[in-house]
């Protein structure tokens, strides 16, 4: 078999000279003489001439004795130096940047090394697209100057690094890259964006949208009549919005407010012949002190006794119920209400009084036509509370703690008045309470009217004459309304923040 040698001519270096080349006649004669001999192809030889001006690859075919049988030229003619920007030969392409070839047919995995200084972004993108042999579509508003260095990056990493400082986005569709600003008014925005629905689980959609910064507002839309928020944005922006929504859309902690509303009369202690100053004690320490106006549970406590007696609501509740059983006070209500963190809760034990408003007129038309309006007024006990959780402490904003009553029943001179006269006492404050601890609101005095009727059995029931055998004594007294209030934090389990993996790709590209 013949031997094959390849010679490559390149400038700037020296190798060995080519062997003497026989004439055509000699080659024909040798071929006739040794036509039956085995031929072999020798390995490719690389021959570089010092004075070469072009690059050329030749294949030399020799026989078994080393004689040249044929010479073939495989490379096309080149008309430029290798140091220029591009070779002009068909099928040849080279850029000043150094790229490492890979097995990828479209060049996406080729690593790019380049540096751009004060270069227009459109020019940079076109150069990268030509090197990577990709199809590039750019919005007319893509503009800016690039100053960056790319070292060992893929085409997607290079595009992302170039576009990031300019605030531009891109998306990939097959071998086509679409680049546009993230502006909903851009004609290419539907191609670089993706639509993702988000359904909140714990908060309202409006609450989520209201928490977004201004830069995210153009990409979200509330769907009226449904618990849905639509996100239409580039993938990296969608991931940022979803992550923010997931962090906010968590179970809201709640606070259970337990209250005991009781009334302490000033004569209750004396009625049963008991001195509270010495009766309510713990380990020799006085728990509460009875004043002239009743049991001032919100008054002065001893350092040890008061904290131990009313620190836990269960102990407080048992203590107050024990006092009620022995007649020292009256429990009006024991409401329990649950409120969300930061939301207002209302407790009301009221009496509604209705009265009419009728214009005074002496016209004869009133005998046949008249106008009457009914108004309503409430009186009783009202609480308006807003709890706020701070770690293991609850801040309770007591917007209104009110006690009111209609004083017409207590004053006979006002009983003839057709309109109600309401006497109101209210307090408002803000307190910090530990979880499951108790606070006391006192000093709210309420007037009570009590009718004591004494009758003679049997005779007081006689028709017409029964009133002669009974007496009615009306007593008016002031009773203190005391409110025990205890918050209990209901902590829900916090859901983990999860963002779909399809929206967290390292390059931010979207496949449509």
TrEMBL record:
It comes from the Bacteria. It is found in: Membrane. InterPro entries: Bact_Secretion_Sys_Channel (IPR050810), GspD/PilQ (IPR001775), Secretin/TonB_short_N (IPR011662), T2SS/T3SS_dom (IPR004846), T2SS_GspD_CS (IPR004845). Keywords: Cell outer membrane, Membrane, Signal, Transport. Residues 134-182 form the Secretin/TonB short N-terminal domain. One of its GO terms (biological process) is protein secretion. GO terms for cellular component: outer membrane; type II protein secretion system complex. Transmembrane segments: none annotated. Pfam families: Secretin. PANTHER family: PROBABLE GENERAL SECRETION PATHWAY PROTEIN D, SECRETIN GSPD-RELATED. Belongs to the bacterial secretin family. This is Type II secretion system protein D. It comes from Crateriforma conspicua. The lineage of its organism: Bacteria, Pseudomonadati, Planctomycetota, Planctomycetia, Planctomycetales.
């Amino acid at each position: 078999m013949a031997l094959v040698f390849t010679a490559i001519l390149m400038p700037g270096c020296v190798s060995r000279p080519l062997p003497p080349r026989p004439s055509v006649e000699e080659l024909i004669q040798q071929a006739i003489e040794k036509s039956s001999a085995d031929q072999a192809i020798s390995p490719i030889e690389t021959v570089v001439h010092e004075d070469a001006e072009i690059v050329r690859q030749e294949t030399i075919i020799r026989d078994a004795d080393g004689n040249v049988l044929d010479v073939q030229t495989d490379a096309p003619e080149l008309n430029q130096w290798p140091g220029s920007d591009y070779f002009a030969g068909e099928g040849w392409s080279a850029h000043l940047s150094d790229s490492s070839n890979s097995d990828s047919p479209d060049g996406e995995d080729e690593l790019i090394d380049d540096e751009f200084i004060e270069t227009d972004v459109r020019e940079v993108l076109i150069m990268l697209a030509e090197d990577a042999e990709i199809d590039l579509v750019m919005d007319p508003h893509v503009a800016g100057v690039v100053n960056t260095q790319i070292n060992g990056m893929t085409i997607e990493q290079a595009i992302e690094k170039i576009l990031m400082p300019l605030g531009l986005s891109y998306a990939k569709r097959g071998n086509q890259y679409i680049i546009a600003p993230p502006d909903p008014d851009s004609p290419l925005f539907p191609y670089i964006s993706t639509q993702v629905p988000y359904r909140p689980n714990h908060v309202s959609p409006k609450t989520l949208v209201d928490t977004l910064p201004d830069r995210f507002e153009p990409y979200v839309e509330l769907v009226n009549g449904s618990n849905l928020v639509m996100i239409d944005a580039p993938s990296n922006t969608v991931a940022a919005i979803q992550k923010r929504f997931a962090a906010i859309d968590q179970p809201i902690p709640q606070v259970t407010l337990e209250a005991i509303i009781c009334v302490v009369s000033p004569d209750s202690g004396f009625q049963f012949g008991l001195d509270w100053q010495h009766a309510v004690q713990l380990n020799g320490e006085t728990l509460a002190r009875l004043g002239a106006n009743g049991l001032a549970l919100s008054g002065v406590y001893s350092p040890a006794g008061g904290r131990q007696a009313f620190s836990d609501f269960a102990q407080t509740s048992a203590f107050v119920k024990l006092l009620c059983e022995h007649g020292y006070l009256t429990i009006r209500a024991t409401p329990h209400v649950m409120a969300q963190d930061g939301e207002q809760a209302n407790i009301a034990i009221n009496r509604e009084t209705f009265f009419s408003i009728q214009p005074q007129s002496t016209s004869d038309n009133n005998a046949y036509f008249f106008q009457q309006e009914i108004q309503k007024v409430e009186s009783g006990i009202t609480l308006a509370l807003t709890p706020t959780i701070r770690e293991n402490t609850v801040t309770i904003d007591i917007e209104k703690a009110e006690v009111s009553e209609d004083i017409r029943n207590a004053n006979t001179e006002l009983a003839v008045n057709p309109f109600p006269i309401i006497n109101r006492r209210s307090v408002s404050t803000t307190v910090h309470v530990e979880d499951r601890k108790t606070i006391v609101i006192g000093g709210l005095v309420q007037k009570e009217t009590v009718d004591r009727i004494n009758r003679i059995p049997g005779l007081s029931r006689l028709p017409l004459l029964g009133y002669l055998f009974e007496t009615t004594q009306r007593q008016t007294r002031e009773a203190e309304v005391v409110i025990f209030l205890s918050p209990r934090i209901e902590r829900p389990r916090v859901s983990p923040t999860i963002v779909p993996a399809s929206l967290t790709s390292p390059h931010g590209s979207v496949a449509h």
